[in-house]
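Re-run with default settings, no changes from the original entry. Doing this only to confirm the output is reproducible before filing.
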Amino acid sequence: MKQLILIGAGGYAKSVIDSIDFEIYNIVGFIDEFKKEKKHLGYPIVAQSLEQIKDKNKYVYFITVGNNLNRLRWYKQLEKYHLEIINIIDSTAIISTKAKIGKGCFVGKMAIINSNSSIGDNCIVNTKALIEHGCSLGNHVNMSTNSVINGDVSIGEGSFIGSCSVTIGQLSIGKWSTIGAGAVVIRNVGNGTTVAGVPAKEINKGAMLG
């Protein structure tokens, strides 16, 4: 059985833990830099940083941080130490045998990833999210609950796709962009851009965070 350390003691961890295969993984505890309590969800806070973990290579790791920028920061730290980052995929998720998924990804309950789609590293495909055929997600993307991207959509690194949003097929979403909850995206979205509404309109454009 592999010994698993989770990074980030917040609400997102509840969904992740509920999807873990406990025949494969035993949760040792959490790393969290801010939590004052000694436990989270019944598991101990074992450290505030990776540096405090002795024999780091004894463990496998998963980042339970929803914020894309913070998740990227932790991912870089794990990569620095050449540590094993696992995927956690819920047993109810439906994933095409022709889809590709990077490392450090979470695929939640009843999420669907269809044929010839490609998911980058350190991504979240949350509960009931739908990724249609031929889509591409860059690294560190977060697809929130019930979000839909139709066929051949490309999403750039670090973007956040809000709950219940719909993106029509063959569009491009830039890097570190945000699609608001419930938005209907009918045209391309540039880098570092926030859109919202039906149809989705640009409400903010700033510097890319990544």
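The chain has a mean pLDDT of 96. DSSP finds two helices and 25 strands in the chain.
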